[in-house]
């Protein structure tokens, strides 16, 4: 049984009405698509992060240090060392600069997807898209949301998310990913679209 996500998405639903059309109908439809178990995992994850903030001193990191930490965490993902990636993520849990917090939220979606926690990955990605619709990270977040919905065996929703990803990138929502990174996001979204369209075609 699908339900609206507790806690954070209650607030999100209110914000949806305040965005004056900034949010696409697709995004509004996605709100009830994550399960209670995914919500419980995210709430526990949030508590763990708050505990680790004091221990790891994330609130004292500069933007440059935070970006370096994130680069190392992505290297850990590529090396298959997900425990190390998680430890590095926790060290940045208290970063205060908004742009860095959003970058880490995007990283959370990528990390959870890599761990095969698709519901948690989708929630992290959609929190970014819904709460920060004008963020530079929207295109990449939509891509990871699409991958997550693929993982949850929802190919039609994933297709729509990849289409939204391409639109967001073409509209210039990805200032921080201009050039090579934006092109990489588009290329990956188009590749997944081609695969899924073949799968769902009659």
| Gyration radius, in Å | 16 Å
Order of helices and strands: HHHHHHHHHH
Put simply, the count of helices is 10
CATH class membership: Mainly Alpha
* Topology-level CATH name: Serine Threonine Protein Phosphatase 5, Tetratricopeptide repeat
Describe the structure.
With 202 residues, the protein is an all-alpha fold. The protein has a single domain (8-200), classed as Tetratricopeptide repeat domain (Serine Threonine Protein Phosphatase 5, Tetratricopeptide repeat, Alpha Horseshoe), CATH 1.25.40. 72% of the residues lie in helices and 0% in strands. It has ten helices and no strands. The chain has helices spanning 8-18, 25-30, 36-56, 63-78, 82-91, 98-114, 118-131, 138-151, 155-170, 180-200. Helix 3 crosses helix 7. The longest helix is centred in the first third of the chain and has 21 residues, at 36-56. The two termini are 28 Å apart. The model is unreliable at 1-22, 34-46, 52-58 and 173-177 (pLDDT under 50).
Q: What topology does this entry show?
A:
Elements: H1 8-18, H2 25-30, H3 36-56, H4 63-78, H5 82-91, H6 98-114, H7 118-131, H8 138-151, H9 155-170, H10 180-200
Quick structural overview:
72% of the residues lie in helices and 0% in strands. It has 202 residues and is an all-alpha fold. Helix 5 (82-91) runs antiparallel to helix 6, helix 6 (98-114) runs antiparallel to helix 7 (118-131) and helix 7 runs antiparallel to helix 8.
Which labels suit this protein?
202 residues, Serine Threonine Protein Phosphatase 5, Tetratricopeptide repeat, single chain, mainly alpha, disordered N terminus
